[in-house]
Design goal:
The protein is 0% helix and 50% strand. It has strands at 2-6, 9-12, 17-24, 33-38, 45-50, 56-58, 66-71, 76-81, 90-96, 107-112. Strands 2-10-9-4-5-6 form a six-stranded mixed sheet, with no helix packed on it. A four-stranded antiparallel sheet has the order 1-3-8-7, with no helix packed on it. Strand 5 and strand 6 form a beta hairpin. The chain is globular and about 40 Å long.
Length: 113
């Protein structure tokens, strides 16, 4: 299975952005999926998860601002990020949840003031 995250970038605080992650090589719909992030000098951390049926969870630091969703027909998982904050700056990755697939390259999000 290969995972590729897309559409990070440089945005100002308060703005919105939607990340996409495309999976190939395995039946995507069989797995819960998650978004993770790794800020400079920090460990990779979970951001949000979506079960196979679309139930979602997000960590407290992004709750109410980030929304995970998935399109099983497209083998794609999304992360809608609103009201971005400086502390959201990180490389964002997707993976199954719990993570067992080799980590893809990730996509860099930089939030500026």
């Amino acid at each position: 299975v290969q995972l590729q995250a897309f559409w990070g970038g440089l945005v100002q605080a308060g703005c919105s952005l939607r990340l996409s992650c495309a999976a190939s090589g395995r039946t995507f719909s069989n797995y819960a999926m998650g978004w993770f992030r790794q800020a400079p000098g920090k460990e990779r951390e979970l951001v949000a998860t979506a079960t196979t049926t679309g139930s979602t969870y997000s960590v407290d630091s992004v709750k109410g601002r980030f929304t995970i969703s998935r399109d099983n027909a497209k083998n794609t998982v999304y992360l809608q990020m609103n009201n971005l904050k400086l502390e959201d700056t990180a490389v964002y990755f997707c993976n199954a949840f719990p993570a067992f697939i080799s980590w893809g390259q990730g996509t860099q999000l930089t939030v500026s003031s």
